[in-house]
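Hi Y.,

Following your request, here is the sequence exactly as I used it, all 261 residues.
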Amino acid sequence: MPGGALQGVGVLVTRPEHQAMPLCRMLGAAGADCLRLAAIEIKPLAERQQLAERLQPLESYDLIVFMSANAVRFGAALLAQKRDLPLAAVGPATLRALNQAGYRVSVLPENGFDSEGLLAHQRLQHLAGRRVLIVKGMGGRDLLATTLQARGASVDHACVYERLAATPSTAELAKLVAEFEPAEFKVITATSLDIGAHLLSLATPELRALFEQAHWLVPSARIDAGLAELGLSAPRIVAASAEDQDLLSALLRWRAGESPA
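Below is the corresponding structure, written out as tokens. Let me know if you'd prefer a different format.
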């Protein structure tokens, strides 16, 4: 297809600003016309500096779990350059962030890049008397902690960042409508349920109408179902994960089916 397989596809990338550009570059290389609207902002928690004083000695934890690349970005300092700690990462982006910070990861999800995948790992099955530290953002799902506790673990949390709803101006939203509306095919990314919820909450009636006409690109059946619960009736494209390459692959498969020529 001249111009790339995604020629004529307008993709609204809604990740936080610092995470949006790699996906935009990948989609643009495939021919898509990318627009950006950060639905959430990621901010470090000021009190993370005092976390180390409230936690148990790092060596007392049988496993330290990082729940996202942002958890590494704002929480790797908790590890205090100790390279022999037992670390777990919830997915490949988190793994890369830890590796780039100089740390080795011993536990990864066996299937899927989420809490469910991590909980399936053999190391997390029998935890009576074990101590686990979870490094994460404020809020979010409690599935990992509650399941580990049910399996006998003592769980501590280190919340190192928060997700805040973005507050674009009326002019910015009007500009987005004008730029997004002409696209032949419209796609919106929602790589977390927080992003999807905040995006729907800030939409003007005109923008919400566009949202319902678009296809939403999501990284899991869980987020697909969550968007349906929020009242979104637009069709969804479900990728294998929130990894950039998996999002692109899902979009290419959809585009081929939408317009085989």
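The first helix runs from residue 17 to 29.

Thanks again,
Q.
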